[in-house]
Amino acid sequence: MTDILTVSAAYGADLPWPDATLADLIAAQAARTPDAVAVRQWDTRLTYRQLVDRAAGLAAALRERGIRPGDRVGVCGARTPDLVVTVVGVLLAGAAYVPLEPGGPRERLREIARDAGIRVVAGDAAAAEFGDEPGVEAVGLPGPAPLAPCPARPGDPAYVLFTSGSTGRPKGVLTTHRNAVEFVTGVAALTGADASVRSLGIASLGFDAATMDLFVPLLLGGAVQLLGADDRADPVRLARFVAAHEVTWGFITPTVLALLDPAELPSWRVLLCGGEAVPAELVARWAPGRRFLNGYGPTETTVLAVSGDLTAADTDPVPIGLPLPNHRAYVVDADLRPVPPGETGELLIGGPGLADGYLNRPGLTAERFVPDPFGDRPGERLYRTGDLVRQASDGRIVYLGRADRQVKVRGQRIELGEVEAVLAGHPGVDRVAVEALPGPAGTELVAFLTPADAPDDETLRAYAGPRLTTAMLPARTVRLAALPVSPTSGKLDRPALRALAVAAPREADEDAGGDPVEAAVRRLWARLLGAVPGPDSDFLAAGGNSIAAMRLVAALRAELGRRVDTRVLFTDRTFAALVDRVRAAAPADGDELTTGNPPTLSPPQRRLWFMDQLAPSSAPYNIAVAHRLRGPLDTAALGAALRAVAERHDVLRWRIPQTGGVPYAVREEPTDVAVPVVDLTGAADAEAELAGMLAAGAGHSFDLATGPPWQVTVYRLAADTHVLAITVHHAVFDGWSEALLYDELAEAYARAGAGAPPARPPLPATYADYAVWRAERDRRRGAADLAWWTEHLAGAPTVLDLPRDRPRPAVQTYAGVEAAVRLTEAADRAVRELAARRGTTVAAVLLAGFGELLRRLTGGDDHVLGAIVADRRLAAFDDVIGFFIDTVPVRVRTGGATFAGLVDRCAAELHAVTEHPGAPLERIVEALGVGRDTSRAPLVQVLFNVLNFVPPRLALTGLAVEPVPVPKPGSPFDITVYVVERDGRAGVEVVHNPDLFDAARIEGLLADLAALVGALAADPDAPADQVAPELPRPAVRVPALGAMTVAAAEPARAPLPTGPDALTATEELIAGIWREVLGRDRVGVVDNFFDIGGHSMALAAVHARLTEATGRSLTMLDLFRHPTVRALAASLDGAADRPELARAALRAAARRGRARRTPPRRPNQP
Amino acid sequence: MAEPRFLVVRNDEEQYSIWSADRDLPAGWHDTGFAGTREECLAHIDTVWTDMRPRSVREAHS
């Protein structure tokens, strides 16, 4: 017996743990809390029941393939909740899982699979990675199956993790269920973890920290918050994930933790840090307000063996702590004899965390797992960690370094011998020595090679890449005629090698000129990668890796205020490309932009999708343009140019299908863009035919579900005269996009004509990135902005009904007819002078004039119009085609002011409405409680559009291009007013609904508007209501007789059932769907859908379910028009023909019937 | 100088290890009768320790 007072030793407390397998315990937890969330990744959540049922499905499939306890099954899957299902499935089958990370070094993965005797690989990437490996069967995730008991026992292996081996071969550590269960019990006791745990699921499955991430929550009834690959690779996304998932507990390496901000993550109450030395500075920054524990442990002792709380008072080197419960630690000399307390020695660990050993490596196991001569536990073993430590006076253990040639790079254990063995395998390499040296981005590996003309970096990288993990690849190489040898021992002189590494030349000097951005990026690159880059320097070849990328991105953000995505460094890898990206990058403000997002609908797109579903055709939401091209047109080059645009702007390749009333975006791969040429050269009246076809093309009915959302047609009028017509659905386009489209088309057409490939670099951000950014912005600002809107619009009228010529149709129609007026020269001058004097825009003056006109038309002095705001607030979206438009209410109050005063009000209003983008129109409509009315657009019936003051021009090389007017295909508003400038003078164009207004009325109105604006601008300091009181003419002030009514809706066709008890079957059905969609226990048959929590998207969900349940061609409009259960049921049961509903129904039916890939129809296509 | 001598030892779970020939055997460990240099002992273990499962686990499955 050894006296513990005189030797360096420490002991953890005794703590019993369940004698069961991981699989048993997870199944038991699922039986206790089946509906609790077990795994979450953003919107994907798995309950315990789902997890276990689906895992049982995989377990059954594995058993069918003969998998038994003691077998090993590979796990190869993306970082989605399915990965957890796969892991639990393998465990439930009684087998041990072996992580085989998709995308890892191919040769290495296959060697591991062979070494582990793997014949089945499970997971969603199994087929892709191992499908062609002989003797290996890939198994995806089958459906759920009934749970069968796990046939494994606690002493059987649960997983085998492969770590770097000094002889050049990875070694597999056999960890049992007992090891893992005991560890989870111990760490839960240590950290106070319980069922409320939401763990940080960040570790790669191949690292044993994943045991902590997954099994601590799953054994306690908590929830794994599993990070996907992208969220894991970028510090900003990581922080966003942790905050959004309210992570409470988790293990992280100090390098990654250093990139996060503690103030942003207050929910993270228990923070375990380790895997490499934890700097005291980091502890000081993070420990206040939370528990901060150091965590130390080799895989061989199961995750953590030594741990303890750290505080801001701890100094470098901070202690790693004390043994976990049931564990013991000894500090020994080279002969395994204990050293006195305070002296340095090798750390030995004993306890139930000790793995069985190394798979198929008995000798190596015997060397590292040695008899325990100290304890009272006969026959037990101790693991030799190879780590040098000493015990501080307070008993805590302090880590000092390695006793052997094992190093850690970015938290990964690496045997330098393995790297040397692999590099030596290249036929061009004679001798190799690899050293780990401090580098600018943490520890880095430097390889020394002979002969002096040993293969270059690229060759070596290509050779070693499939055999080594990225952390094991040398960051630098030094080629020598001979390796230095110690004159005394005759052995390799490693200190001399290290000196050589320091002396090895670095590239170019840091002060290589360029603008301030380039100079700053060069400085950061040099600091983090250790060498000053040239324009062609490659990030990876310069030793860059994911951690260096994260640090570089963080530094660019902190020091340059620019937001660049880490993936840029792996796609456009040169220094010059990075500088370009930084120049184009958005300023890093509070609105965090992430890039590389999958297709995601933005809130305005969802709104537009809903309105598109409601309208009888997509025409009111089309944007149509046409240009006459004189000269020789190269249609092949045009096609190539259009394709180049669609490749760069993926939103042009989106489809928007829906399930259950919820729309979503799907991105199609780029294909050639069809450019049909319609030959009109033989037509009797080509111009008339052209006009008809342009109108038809502009009114083309896009089906967003099948896509594509745009079409291009060329009309040939003569050999060298063509008209290029483009129609795009507004859901993927806006006025700003038009200018982008023309620019890119012009450049790509020129290049294609010259036989050159497209030259534009990929965009810094995509429309999906906007959608994600916007959703986050709206989430953050939504409540405050909505409060502003409701206060701003309090008491405002929600209907603007201008004198008209016909009764308002019961169901809104979307017809549109155009008219225009231009100010006289004198009026234009007066307007511009007034705008200049009041410090505002021509548009604000025109809006004030329009407001005064409205007062004279309606007799009211308070009106709400709509305005258009472009939500292009980040520079990163400057070049992105897409729908960035919000319609916002504009409140125009007229009474008691001079015109100058009105202009000031309008200028302030136009500014204010752009400042509250977090609450889109539909939320404002809901919050104001505006009643739904099928006869008009809610809240905004008149739109005042001040965008596109100067229309963009298309220019194509070798062609004379002039715009051709295309009739607006329709209008979602009663009247849309466009402020325009034509031939140097301001004016307005309007699109009005001819079902409401006669052309004569609108023309008179416009003429009088122009005159009134001129008069007001000429006399801005007189009371506005006294200027030109004769305007407008009486004919436009007075409605046609009987026109200010709403046409009667069709009478109900079925008698309404009486009495609350007599629910018809249809009513039962509808009420059930309402309850489900609205999440209410009950709904009354006469409750109005929109009064009890219904909104647009809920309506879409009801529509989808009702359509499915009844098999009927309902329209969403039906639901709008019959907003109670009773009325809707009566309508359904009555179901007579109503033309406007029948049209929408036909469209809905056509939508369902059309095959997914059918191209849109084109007018008169030859 | 002669290389240190080791013994191949085994516990009741039939797990193998090596122990310095100069030191007392820890409790619960038995000499298998094989002695040699470190490398010789480890090489020997590579040939004799064919089932690395602890005996209790092995027997539970048989």
Please tell me about this protein's structure.
The complex is a heterodimer of chains A (1166) and B (62). Chain A is an alpha/beta fold. Among the domains of chain A are: 20-33 and 45-153, Rossmann fold; 406-484, GMP Synthetase, Chain A, domain 3; 516-587, Orthogonal Bundle (Non-ribosomal Peptide Synthetase Peptidyl Carrier Protein, Chain A), CATH 1.10.1200; 603-762, Chloramphenicol Acetyltransferase, CATH 3.30.559.10; 770-950 and 968-1037, Nonribosomal peptide synthetase, condensation domain (Chloramphenicol Acetyltransferase), CATH 3.30.559.30; 1065-1135, Non-ribosomal Peptide Synthetase Peptidyl Carrier Protein, Chain A (Orthogonal Bundle). Chain A has 35 helices and 44 strands. In chain A, strands 1, 17, 18, 20, 21 and 22 form a 6-stranded antiparallel β-sheet that branches. A 6-stranded mixed β-sheet of chain A has the order 38-44-43-41-39-40. In chain A, helix 21 (635-648) crosses helix 23 (735-753). The longest helix of chain A has 26 residues, at 767-792. Chain B is an alpha+beta fold. Chain B has one domain: Structural Genomics, Unknown Function 30-nov-00 1gh9 Mol_id (Rubredoxin-like, Alpha-Beta Complex), CATH 3.90.820. Helices cover 29% and strands 31% of the residues of chain B. Chain B contains 2 helices and 3 strands. Chain B has a 3-stranded antiparallel β-sheet with strand order 2-1-3. The N and C termini of chain B lie far apart (48 Å). The mean pLDDT of chain B is 93. Chain A binds chain B through residues 69-70, 153, 155-156, 174, 176, 335-336, 356-357, 359-367, 369-373, 377-381, and chain B through 8-9, 11-13, 15-20, 23-29, 38, 41-43, 45-46, 48-50, 52-54, 56-57, 60-61.
List the keywords.
heterodimer, A: 1166 residues, alpha/beta, Rossmann fold, GMP Synthetase, Chain A, domain 3, Non-ribosomal Peptide Synthetase Peptidyl Carrier Protein, Chain A, six-stranded antiparallel β-sheet, six-stranded mixed β-sheet, 44 strands, 35% helix, disordered C terminus, B: 62 residues, alpha+beta, Rubredoxin-like, three-stranded antiparallel β-sheet, 2 helices, 3 strands, flat
